[in-house]
Amino acid sequence: xxxxxxxxxxxxxxxxxxxxxxxxxxxxxxxxxxxxxxxxxxxxxxxxxxxxxxxxxxxxxxxxxxxxxxxxxxxxxxxxxxxxxxxxxxxxxxxxxxxxxxxxxxxxxxxxxxxxxxxxxxxxxxxxxxxxxxxxxxxxxxxxxxxxxxxxxxxxxxxxxxxxxxxxxxxxxxxxxxxxxxxxxxxxxxxxxxxxxxxxxxxxxxxxxxxxxxxxxxxxxxxxxxxxxxxxxxxxxxxxxxxxxxxxxxxxxxxxxxxxxxxxxxxxxxxxxxxxxxxxxxxxxxxxxxxxxxxxxxxxxxxxxxxxxxxxxxxxxxxxxxxxxxxxxxxxxxxxxxxxxxxxxxxxxxxxxxxx
Length: 356
Description:
About 45% of the residues lie in helices and about 15% in strands. It is an alpha/beta fold. It has one domain (about 5-350): Rossmann fold, CATH 3.40.50.720. The chain is globular and about 55 Å long. The chain starts with 9 loop residues before the first strand and ends with a helix.
């Protein structure tokens, strides 16, 4: 990533109050970007956005992208150079309880954003973040590539696959004529400090430890493409830089890229992640397995980031084990009552200086 690229760039960041969005807004601001955020209100504290505040942002709007009229006004006011669309209902298990909300937020929220952008702005690049779960998972455990079939068993996965189709339609119908590159970024299972979402393994462990309870883990044998949030965001930012330059130089880039751990990285199960996280924190590597029947979740999931590493000057700096350890160090500081903003800034700085 070229850190000089971002100085003075107007960036529209949706989902800036969420876990990944809060990291993205903070990092972009340190690079000199003028960041406007649009998102729902943050979850109850503790949450990373509240800890970081919004002073580093040019403006922060609490708004629902399902409101087309409000979205249109906010986009026109922002007039962005670069757009990162991270806003979403991101939880698989919640998608079973609230499928209409999930499809509305993930599909129609994206449609309203793209419609506003085509009418009121001409950005240099638009990056729509979807998911590693957009692929039709056949249970084989093979690493999915960008050309594989889209699908999704649960409403969350299906809504993200449907978002990919909607993005492709807007690209062909509108943005190609405008000369604006619109792409999708399919991130792996992102971990990192400051995530307090429900039904996610590391936040669930942290809450249990703080309450003096034994952690409970679902599906400990399931595998996921674990990746640290800074590695994933580094990919998104590098993609945006490359798109901006490729448009000027008439160079074609892929329309979708996977961002996840390298194919030769060790496969890490949910149970192994929990064990390493607990051990790094200095706790016994013990947890209770939840055996109650719940909504269907895929046991095996892996994505292949080879196209991203070949198309961009990017590859993950941290393997899965290093990502877990860095995440544990953040939460260790948090549980020791250190400031979340200081923990976050220190890890961004160390990542940029490649001193991790």
